[in-house]
Write a structure and sequence with these properties.
The complex is a heterotrimer of chains A (about 325), B (about 300) and C (about 325). By secondary structure, chain A is α/β, with parallel strands linked by helices. Chain A has helices at about 20-30, 60-70, 90-100, 120-130, 135-145, 165-175, 195-210, 220-225, 245-250, 255-265, 305-310, and strands at about 10-20, 35-45, 50-55, 75-80, 85, 100-105, 180-185, 215-220, 230-235, 240-245, 315, 320. Chain A is built from eleven helices and twelve strands. The two termini of chain A are about 35 Å apart. Classes of the chains: A alpha/beta (about 325), B mainly alpha (about 300), C alpha/beta (about 325).
Chain lengths: ~325, ~300, ~325
């Protein structure tokens, strides 16, 4: 499935946000603190591959996506897009890179300018990059809208005239029109009704097949990811805790957190109530993460070593990575 | 595809523009009313020498029976304390009031909008410094500074305009700044950055149109403030002595006993004139705001 | 029977003066210790139905027909003073969006205290003890009463909202989208909590949600709404195991689970209708694969398809 050179290579990506200590804090000499939103994340993404990043809010999955696109400035690490260093690219180089790397946001309404017609919104990328004549652009817009299942007669409407699902189709069309190689899908269906979610997921999947697109698919719900991804990475408190093919992950999760996430997926079949593992408490604060394995305070198989020693992110089985001292031993 | 192309109504790249605004304005009774109200005053001001029955700047020899003479066929709005025709003074006075209002508000909104957008969009140190300056201006009490400025610079119409601008741009700047701060964090701005748009493009295309309604509304407000300030200054005797404005008319009428002799015709026209212009502009601004902001017109239930 | 809702019908008046029917002919009954889930897509009328029976509609909305019998009294006929008296003591609400519903500048304990004192003139120490009791009941350590909402996580804020709803020992608790915008794990915690409270306190509960998983795990009855009308209503096991209305069937198929691996997901084509533009006949017919001519002209009335199980479809 993948070429020799991956589309995206992320190595030890880190992102820290400074915690404001306020005037009083500074006067008192309070220490500068920072949140490690991403703490050393690495992965590669091959041509035509869909990698899902999953985790609860605050795990760093969205920041990872945004840092790769340089919508946030990384603290350290390396991001190679087709071998080119994204984090060090200059203005012109970056603009060229932006053509190839697109993003689809969670809230399609928020990502559309309310006073610009849909046609203009979709054409905006072409306009910014000076691609084609106005007539070419019009034609491209119509083509792309047709591809995402909208009617070309809708180009002059405003975002508020569309339903949630249609708006997300517009969001996808805006990314698609640039003929990108990589699309970061940042929770593209989380804000949609269940009945619409599947429409949009199917659309994304079909487009991916048709155009050989590569997706970095960010989601908080494993059930959504199940339908679209080739590989899944699970994140917890800024770190990748498990990464494997979709089949292996759902069949035999190695990290207890992944197992808990899978079991927490709501199931509408009341007769098939499985044994659920409901983790107690909340995700700890990333300002002051727990020692050793960050998951140990909520883990039901944690032992002494988990408190003291941080488990390495290792390939436990072929193509199946996990960061756990007792991987798979539940 | 070709078939679809030929039946599609308009182009993708053109902007909504002033034509749309005009088309929608024509359909709004409120906007039309505002427009007409302003047009009447504007017409009156521009063609003052032809519209006014007398020249209010020409010297008149006042006699006891021509001072504060009630309205008559000869003087439809009576005469003032100098025996001059109130109607003519009112018509000429519109010129000064309108110039002060329009010029002061246009420059005020321009400066305030620019400062607000730059400070809000770039944020950081630039934003901090700009807003610091704004805050200093904001805490200075208006009236005393007006008085000081105008008496220092001399009471000419341009100095009055300058004083008004110096004191009112901060309000606009703060409002626009706050709005830009929130727009900057909106996702469609992030998205524009993600496709490689420059700051200039983002400001022009995504931020300006969204702060424009505020700027317009603010403009209406500043026009009122400017006209009222000019009148206020003139009323305090700091108006341009060589010019007749609605403010100086009120000042003279008050100062020279119009109230005690019951000469309502000397007070009412300039007062109503001020209200008329402010009201007209407010109506128009309200409707324009409604038009340029399509979201405000939607009803989510429908 | 604690709550008996009959033929609830609500209209909205638009600024242009048109009248839109947001809810039409909703009926159900609910006993103590029982939870009803109201589900449907956005715009299906589930929230309006809930606000109608609580008499919390915005100014443009009005209940035009129906009865809401709560322990024998029609809530729709109570005077405002009587209603205030009943609210919170008899029935309370967990609003959607816990961050917005809590006052950011007052401590959580303070806000719960306020809810208690508004209805019961208790002495200070008794109120304080009650606040601690309530917080512990929903799984928040009592010492956190002095903290402010921003010091709480999303899940804890939702718990605090639930504690507030329980302040005056109500018989009925209505929860509006209690798990929306929460993480999967926190969702599971909140579902467990609601289920436990219902059993322990013998509460009647109405959960308005778009998440069928929440209904399956926390409710005994389910009411599926579409276009402001009841599409299907019945016991959860029966409706979920053998849904009779095509809308319910498709909604269940569209629900993402990890059971049908890799197979393409089944969505429901099109979008829910707008209130201003409701289709004639069955409101679901434009999206229904089984629709026949009759569905286009005649509105189906709910009919019994099993014990306590009704569906509004010509084809059942």
């Amino acid at each position: 499935m993948s070429d020799t050179q991956p589309v995206l290579e992320v190595t030890d990506l880190q992102k820290r946000f400074a915690v404001p200590r306020g005037v009083l804090g500074a006067l008192r000499g309070a220490p500068r603190r920072s949140v490690r939103a991403i703490d050393g994340v690495s992965f590669t993404l091959g041509h035509g591959e869909v990698l899902a990043l999953v985790g609860e809010s605050g795990c760093g999955k969205t920041t990872t996506g945004r840092t790769i696109l340089r919508l946030e400035q990384a603290t350290s690490g390396e991001v190679l897009f087709e071998g080119k260093d994204v984090l060090k690219a200059g203005g012109r180089q970056m603009k060229a890179l932006r053509r190839d790397m697109q993003i689809v946001f969670q809230d399609p309404y928020a990502s559309l300018d309310p006073r610009i017609t849909v046609g203009e919104s979709v054409a905006e990328g072409l306009l910014i990059h000076g691609i084609g004549t106005p007539k070419d652009r019009q034609e491209r817009v119509r083509e792309v809208l047709a591809k995402v299942g909208l009617h070309s007669s809708q180009v002059n409407r405003f975002p508020h005239e569309f339903s949630g699902g249609q708006r997300q189709r517009i969001g996808i069309a805006r990314a698609l029109i640039m003929e990108p190689k990589l699309i970061v899908c940042d929770e593209p269906v989380s804000a949609l009704d269940v009945s619409i979610q599947s429409q949009v997921l199917n659309l994304l999947k079909n487009l991916q097949r048709e155009f050989g697109l590569t997706y970095l698919f960010i989601a908080h719900n494993l059930s959504v990811v199940e339908h679209i991804s080739d590989r899944v990475g699970v994140m917890y408190l800024g770190k990748m805790v498990e990464l494997s093919s979709r089949e292996d992950l759902f069949r035999e999760p190695l990290h207890p957190y992944t197992k808990a996430l899978i079991s927490a997926i709501p199931n509408p079949d009341p007769t098939a109530r499985r044994e659920r593992i409901v983790l107690q408490g909340d995700v700890p604060s990333p300002i002051n993460p727990p020692s050793g394995c960050r998951f140990h305070p909520r883990c039901w198989i944690a032992r002494e070593v988990c408190r003291e020693q941080e488990p390495a992110f290792e390939e436990k089985r072929k193509g199946h990575w996990a960061a756990c001292h007792f991987a798979g031993q539940f | 595809m070709a078939q679809v192309l030929s039946q599609a109504p308009t182009s993708v790249d053109t902007e909504a523009g002033w034509r749309t605004i005009w088309r929608q304005l024509r359909r709004s009774p409120m906007g039309l009313a505002g427009l007409c109200m302003l047009a009447v005053v504007l017409f009156m001001a521009i063609f003052a020498p032809w519209v006014a029955p007398y020249d209010p700047y020409a010297p008149v020899r006042a006699r006891i029976d021509t001072i504060y003479a009630p309205p008559s066929a000869e003087h439809p709005l009576g005469t003032d304390d100098g025996g001059k025709d109130v109607l003519s003074a009112f018509i000429f006075g519109a010129r000064v009031s309108l110039i002060v209002g329009f010029v002061a508000s246009a420059i005020t909104v321009l400066i305030g909008g620019l400062v607000g957008i730059v400070a809000g969009y770039y944020g950081g140190r630039v934003g901090g410094a700009l807003m610091g300056v704004t805050n200093i201006f904001l805490v200075i009490p208006d009236l005393p500074l007006y008085v000081v400025l105008v008496s220092l610079l001399g009471p000419s119409i341009w100095n009055i305009i300058l004083a008004i601008i110096l004191l009112s741009w901060t309000g606009t700047a703060r409002l626009v700044y706050a709005q830009v701060l929130s727009i900057r964090e909106r996702q469609f701005v992030t998205r524009a950055r993600a496709i490689g748009a420059s700051s200039g493009y983002i400001i022009r295309k995504h931020i300006l149109p969204l702060v424009l309604p505020i700027i317009l509304a603010q403009n209406a407000l500043v026009i009122s403030i400017a006209i009222l300030s000019e009148s206020g200054l003139a009323f305090l005797g700091l108006g341009d002595p060589s010019l007749i404005s609605w403010g100086t008319m009120l000042n003279f009428a008050f100062g020279r006993g119009a109230v005690s002799v019951g000469a309502w015709w000397a007070l009412l026209p300039p007062g109503l004139g001020i209200v008329w212009v402010v009201l007209g502009w407010t109506l128009l601004g309200y409707v324009i705001e409604d038009i340029v902001n399509p979201r405000a017109r939607t009803h989510h239930l429908m | 029977m604690l709550l008996d809702v009959r033929n609830l019908t609500t209209e909205f008046t638009t600024p242009e003066g048109a009248r839109l029917r947001a809810v039409e002919g909703v009926s159900f009954t609910l006993g103590r210790g029982e939870a009803l889930g109201i589900v449907g897509e956005s715009g299906c009328g589930k929230t309006t139905a809930m606000l109608s029976l609580l008499r919390l509609l915005p100014a443009a909305g009005r209940v035009v027909a129906g009865e809401v019998l709560f322990a024998g009294d029609d809530l729709l006929r109570l005077t405002p003073a009587e209603l205030r008296e009943r609210r919170w003591r008899d029935l309370s609400i967990v609003f959607q969006g816990a961050m917005n519903a809590l006052n950011p500048v007052r401590s959580v304990g303070d806000q719960i205290r306020e809810a208690i004192l508004a209805h019961m003139p208790w002495p200070r120490d008794k109120v304080g003890a009650r606040v601690s009791e309530l917080l512990e009941l929903v799984g928040i350590p009592a010492w956190r009463a002095a903290q402010f909402p921003h010091q709480y996580s999303g899940g804890m804020r939702q718990r605090a909202m639930i504690a507030m709803a329980l302040a005056c020992n109500p018989q009925l608790v209505v929860a509006d989208e209690p798990t929306t915008a929460l993480d999967v794990m926190v969702q599971a915690q909140i579902i467990d909590l609601l289920d436990r409270l219902r059993r322990d306190l013998d509460l009647a509960m109405i959960i308005v949600t778009h998440d069928l998983g929440v209904v399956a795990e926390a409710c005994q009855q389910v009411l599926v709404m579409y276009g402001g009308r009841v599409a299907e209503h019945g016991p959860v096991e029966r409706v979920f195991a053998a849904p009779r209305h095509p809308y319910t069937q498709m909604l269940l198929k569209a629900f993402p689970t990890i059971e049908h691996r890799g197979a393409p997901m089944v969505g429901i084509p099109g979008s829910p209708p707008r209130l201003s533009d409701l289709p004639a006949g069955c409101r679901f017919h434009p999206r229904c694969p089984l629709a026949v001519e009759r569905c286009r002209v005649e509105t189906p009335e709910p009919r019994a398809v099993g014990e306590g199980h009704v569906a509004a479809c010509h084809l059942v």
